[in-house]
Amino acid sequence: MIFGGTTEGRMAAEWCSSHNIHALYCVATETGFLSFSGIMTLVGRLDSDGIEALILRETPVLVIDATHPYAVEVKENIKTACDKTSTRRIRITREIGDTSGCQKFSGPDELIPWIAQREGIVFVTTGVKEAPLFTHIDGFAERIYFRMLPSVEGLKTCLELGYKPAHLILMWGPFSRDLNRAMFSAAGASILVTKESGAPGGFAEKISAARDLGMQIALLSRPKPPAGEAEGSLESTLALLEKYVCSAGLRECV
């Protein structure tokens, strides 16, 4: 059972498909739907009770948490459900890129006042879940450009919050350095707000483009995992998965 909606989740599902391992791929929205041989996709948001019920119904031998590094609530829900059902779990993490010269913030309580004290256009790439936060900035409709994944739900949310349609960019990334620079320049932005999303999120390209333009860069820091929580890269997770499926007799291994 793979909880994904990310590059790592897709690659884990693709690995399972290519190795004839049947898997259930769980994503929150339709944008994460996959179509691989031997892979079933379940779309919908689940709380810990829902995940626990799903595990009890499907009885997976292994759960892979490949959710986004900032998806704190769902990660905790997965952990709780696995602990309660005594199901083995692997959690994938991402390396953090070069953050030198960036202003880091542990949460919106620090970030929003910092932006409010500065002038200029702000280009936000944090994701639609954070859209309500920036409405607390005076003149946000004029100052904020918001880039997010293309979804009707996300667009509706931002319009209802009062964002200008012309300031909403719905595109599927990651984006090249040149394209980021073109977008930031077209918006006339002097501040970039983003997350430490790692290589799959195009982090390096965003930061490089902002530096090219002399922009200030504000980072919402990645949540720290709970004490004692083991994490591994995609590569190490797939290597561990290879050993696990062989030792468990899930397929023949050479």
Write up what this structure looks like:
By secondary structure, the chain is of the alpha/beta class. It folds into two domains: 2-93 and 225-247, NAD(P)-binding Rossmann-like Domain (Rossmann fold), CATH 3.40.50.720; 103-220, HUPs (Rossmann fold), CATH 3.40.50.620. It contains nine helices and eleven strands. It has helices spanning 7-18, 48-58, 72-85, 108-116, 140-143, 152-161, 177-187, 203-212, 234-247, and strands at 2-3, 23-27, 39-43, 63-65, 89-91, 103-105, 121-124, 144-148, 168-170, 189-195, 216-220. It has a six-stranded parallel beta sheet with strand order 6-11-10-7-8-9, sandwiched between helices. The chain has a five-stranded parallel beta sheet with strand order 3-2-1-4-5. The model has no long low-confidence stretch (mean pLDDT 89).
CATH H level, superfamily name of the largest domain: HUPs
Number of helices, counting only DSSP H or I runs of 4 residues or more: 9
CATH class of the largest domain: Alpha Beta
H-E string: EHEEHEHEEHEHEHEHEHEH
Q: What is the share of helical residues?
A: 25-40%
**How many domains make up the coordinates?**
2
Order of strands side by side in the largest beta sheet? 6-11-10-7-8-9
Overall pLDDT, averaged? 89
CATH topology of the largest domain: Rossmann fold
* Alpha-beta classification: alpha/beta
- The general outline is elongated
| Cα-atom radius of gyration | 20 Å
The CATH architecture category of the largest domain equals: 3-Layer(aba) Sandwich
Strand segment count: 11
Largest pleated sheet: 6 strands, parallel
Estimated share of beta-strand residues: 15-25%
Unreliably modeled segments: none
How far apart, in Å, are the first and last alpha carbons? 24 Å
